[in-house]
Amino acid sequence: MASRNFYIQLIFSVLVITLTALLLAWAIVQDWYFTSGLALILLVTQVYGLIRFINRTNRKIAYFFDAIRNEDFTLRFPERVTIKSFKELNKSLNRVNGLIQEVHLQLQIREQYYQEILKQASIGIMTFNEKGHILFSNPTLERLLNYTPLNHIKQLAQVDQELYEVIEAFKPFDRRLFQLSNEREQYQLALKSTPLVLDGQSLLLVVVQDIKAELDEKETESWVRLIRVLTHEIMNTITPIASISDSISKYYRKGGEMVDLQDLEQAQIENTLKGLEVIKDQGSDLMDFVQSYRSLLSVPEPNKSLVKGKDLFDKISILMSSRVENTNAEFTMKCNPEDLEFFIDEKQLSQVLINLCKNALQAVREQEHGKVQLIAGLDREGTKFIEVRDNGPGIPAELMDEIFVPFFTTKTEGTGIGLSLSKRVMQLHGGSLTVLSVPNQHTIFRLAF
């Protein structure tokens, strides 16, 4: 409405000025000097009035935007004016001013809400620019680092020089684990960075989380699982030895005294020999078990070199050929791109892949159309990976947390350290071994480098 009234008044003023100009021209042609002078005065007055009218409107709008820019919402334009167009314009400006003020208040409330969330968060958060100036750090971070206030990342050198070097070298999407020690306690910090752009300025958001409690809980849980498996295996070996030893000792003792050799029966002597053989076998099994444990603890550091994925797969194909021939499963390999290379210990990784492929072939041996796939490639983030896939029955959900526990196995053969050893090898390579299993659909063991 305000713009319409302004538009109508502007057109009316222009028309009046045009008519006055025509009257002035006609009076000059007719030599009507008095009329010419009067028309000229009217024309100047009307042009001046139009300019003043437009300037008043422009000044109001300029004042309005200046007030908005300075976050001054107290500016009010008078709505009781004689000129209707100004009245409507003032009402519109006041209404817009009120709406902007309401939005501004809502944004302030939301900002305070988010700031309070960041302050109360259980993880440390900070943002800093390319020059290292810290724009924000929450109280949790300052409490973790025992330093306040944080204004520049160079202050981190006073907390821990190595921590400062890590943060200074941080790139977008970097992840690091860092152990921070002070006079009170130790912290196991997980660091993660994310890039931000705010008002055209590149920032780095760093999240710092103390995961010591989680690590302690996982460590205790791992020890419980390992001890449970160890005690199970040892008891399975020791129980027959104890039982047989007790039975044999009864042959040679009666009433607390030794039996004379001439009183022994032939069957007793034969049973003694058989019992000693069983004890020997059980002892050998226990020694093999301990040797497997030693092999898990003594994995050597990888002797890395650049190995082409295609060459690695060709080697695996040769080593697995005899096992594949003894099954009805389809075994395929794919390396994309074909020139993909891995910086690995070829001997160690070959053993890992053979172990995973062997497990996959065992999983599909009862399948009518069993398939095992060995796939190498790059994911969306540029991470190199190798996957061993099969369409077997899968791994039950209740066993997913157990399969990497040393000596845990659901098979009647093997020691149960294959997956544990494979995971250890990948850790030494700076990578990871994970599993995804959907029962009766697929199981995927993924090696990420």
TrEMBL record:
Family matches, as Pfam families: HATPase_c
Protein name in the entry: histidine kinase
InterPro entries in the cross-refs: BphY/WalK/GraS-like, HATPase_C_sf, HATPase_dom, His_kinase_dom, PAS, PAS-like_dom_sf, Sig_transdc_His_kin-like_C
GO MF term set: ATP binding
EC number(s) on file: 2.7.13.3
Catalytic activity field: ATP + protein L-histidine = ADP + protein N-phospho-L-histidine
Source taxonomy: Bacteria, Pseudomonadati, Bacteroidota, Flavobacteriia, Flavobacteriales
Span of domain Histidine kinase: 229-449
Topological type in the membrane: Multi-pass membrane protein
Localization terms from the record: Membrane
Keyword list, A-Z: ATP-binding, Kinase, Membrane, Nucleotide-binding, Transferase, Transmembrane, Transmembrane helix, Two-component regulatory system
PROSITE patterns registered for this protein in UniProt: HIS_KIN, PAS
TM stretches of this protein: 7-26, 32-51
Class of enzymatic activity (EC top level): transferase
